[in-house]
Amino acid sequence: xxxxxxxxxxxxxxxxxxxxxxxxxxxxxxxxxxxxxxxxxxxxxxxxxxxxxxxxxxxxxxxxxxxxxxxxxxxxxxxxxxxxxxxxxxxxxxxxxxxxxxxxxxxxxxxxxxxxxxxxxxxxxxxxxxxxxxxxxxxxxxxxxxxxxxxxxxxxxxxxxxxxxxxxxxxxxxxxxxxxxxxxxxxxxxxxxxxxxxxxxxxxxxxxxxxxxxxxxxxxxxxxxxxxxxxxxxxxxxxxxxxxxxxxxxxxxxxxxxxxxxxxxxxxxxxxxxxxxxxxxxxxxxxxxxxxx
Length: 293
Fold this sequence. Notes:
about 25% strand, disordered C terminus
C-alpha cells in the first residue's frame, strides 16, 4: 500500500528544491509520530512536509526505550569481541561486519569520519536479535518519507538499493564526521537515532551539528536525549564535531564503547548499482582533529 505522504512529497518537490541549510528544530513524542501514519491527517501531513522542506529537523522523543538503548550497546560490544574487524562491499552475500576507522584509515574514505562502525543487513541472521524492533520504528519513518513502509526491506545488493542498520561509537578526542550531505536517491529524509547524550554525561562537548544560512555550525545536542530519533532532509549540510577534543585519554580501547553512540537507518545504493549515489563531503577534514598527539 502506497504512503499517503507520497503525493504530498511529490507536490512539494515539484514546487521547491530540497533545502541545504538548517532552519530550526521541532519535536513530537513517539506516539504522535506513529499517529502520523496510523491516524493520518492531511493537514498535519502537509504541515510536516512543509517544515522539512524549510530545513527543519524533527526530533522524535523517546522513540527507543532506555532499556533497549542499553541492550543495543551491550550487544554490539559483545559482537565486536566475537567478530574480527573487517570490511566488505555491499555485494550479494555481504555479511554483517564491524570496522574500526582510525584517523589513519579515515584518509582512505571519501567522507572523513573517525569511528567504530557496525553494519547489519536484513538478509543475514540478525546476530544481536534486535533488527525487527528497530524496523518497527524505521517503517513509520519510511511511510512519513512517502515510501511504502516495507520499501527496500527485502532487497539484496543485486536490486540496487538496500537497507542498512549502521551503529557507531565515536571515540573521545577525534571521533567525528566532517560536514557533508547525504544522498536523496532512495528517500528524501535521513533517519538518525541517538544512543548517547550530553544529558547522560556520555560526552561533554561536540556532537551533531547542522549549518544554517550563515554557514554557522548549530549544535543540536542540547535537544537530544538517548532514545530519541531525528528525521531531516538528507540534503541538509551537517556533521559530527569531534567529541571532547580536550580529552586526555591515551591508548584508547576501540572495543570499550566509551564515547558517543549513534545509529543510522539508511537505504544505500549497493556496490552493484551503476553510478551509485553516496554521501558528499563538503569540507576538508581537519588533520588536527584526527591526529592522536
